[in-house]
């Protein structure tokens, strides 16, 4: 598909309103709000659906993909506390919208997707938008050991449990953000690596994600 990278006053205005909406829903990290205000979400949509691009909803965007809800993207991004230069593993590239937000926050992103058509689509489109992440194809429930350890790990699909193998790929002081639950609803979980053997776990709000499918997943 040929993409028209047109970002005019209408889209910029809609993006500003989305930022205000996310702030009103409780997103307080100004850097996250700034990133949402910068990434043109309509670039991920067919032009016919540009009027849907700045609503706070997930949306099917072809190739069997959905683009995540802006609130969910903001919520997970805020929990990661990204510092400039952080090495971040993202499991579930999907549309790549979350990838762009992480990159706007200054992260060096390693992102993995298990569905080949989605992987091929995103690896083609994202660099053209100015977001040349490190793209991988495969089962991210095992992490990517070859590039570990990571400062932060984000899982963008619903897991049945926290995979041990991901905890092992976190640096000391690192943060894992992962939705955990059944197929109907998941609790957002953050795990902080305290030292070589100790981890601290927090359970937060409830969301609904597509399932994480793989060896250490469903
Ligand atoms: N974060 C994306 C965005 O910003 O639009 C949306 C991610 S979508 C909700 C979840 C993605 O995780 C899907 O593309 C799915 O194919 C992928 N996925 C599921 N299990 C996976 C696994 N084990 N490894 C890698 N990707 C996986």
Automatic annotation (TrEMBL):
Keywords on record: Cytoplasm, Methyltransferase, S-adenosyl-L-methionine, Transferase
Protein name (Swiss-Prot/TrEMBL): Protein-L-isoaspartate O-methyltransferase
MF term (GO), any: protein-L-isoaspartate (D-aspartate) O-methyltransferase activity
The keyword Aminoacyl-tRNA synthetase is annotated on this UniProt entry: no
Enzyme class: transferase
Gene3D superfamilies listed in its UniProt record: Vaccinia Virus protein VP39 (3.40.50.150)
Subcellular location: Cytoplasm
Active site, UniProt feature: 68
Organism (species): Pedobacter hartonius
Protein purpose: Catalyzes the methyl esterification of L-isoaspartyl residues in peptides and proteins that result from spontaneous decomposition of normal L-aspartyl and L-asparaginyl residues. It plays a role in the repair and/or degradation of damaged proteins.
NCBIfam families per UniProt: pimt (TIGR00080), PRK00312.1 (NF001453)
Primary site of residence: cytoplasm
A Gene Ontology BP annotation from the UniProt entry: protein repair
Superkingdom to which the source organism belongs: Bacteria
Record carries keyword Cytoplasm: yes
SUPFAM superfamilies per record: S-adenosyl-L-methionine-dependent methyltransferases (SSF53335)
Gene Ontology cellular component terms for the protein in this record: cytoplasm
Pfam families registered for this protein in UniProt: PCMT (PF01135)
Gene: pcm
């Amino acid at each position: 598909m040929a993409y028209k990278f047109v970002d005019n006053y209408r889209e910029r205005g809609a993006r500003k309103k989305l930022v205000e909406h996310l702030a009103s829903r409780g997103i307080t990290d100004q850097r996250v709000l700034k990133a949402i205000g910068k990434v043109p979400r309509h670039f991920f949509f067919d032009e016919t659906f540009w009027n849907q691009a700045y609503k706070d909803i997930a949306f099917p965007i072809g190739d069997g993909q959905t683009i995540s809800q802006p609130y969910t993207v903001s919520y997970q991004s805020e929990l990661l506390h990204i510092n400039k230069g952080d090495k971040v593993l993202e499991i579930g590239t999907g549309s790549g919208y979350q990838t762009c937000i992480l990159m706007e926050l200054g992260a060096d992103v390693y992102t993995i997707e298990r569905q080949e058509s989605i992987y091929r689509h995103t690896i083609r489109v994202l660099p053209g938008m100015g977001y040349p992440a490190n793209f991988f194809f495969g089962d991210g429930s095992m992490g990517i050991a070859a590039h570990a350890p990571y400062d932060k790990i984000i899982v963008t699909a619903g897991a049945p449990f926290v995979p041990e193998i991901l905890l092992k790929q976190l640096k000391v002081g690192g943060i894992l953000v992962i939705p955990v639950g059944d197929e109907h609803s998941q609790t957002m979980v953050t795990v902080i690596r305290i030292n070589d053997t100790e981890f601290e776990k927090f359970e937060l709000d409830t969301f609904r994600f597509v399932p994480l499918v793989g060896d250490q997943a469903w």
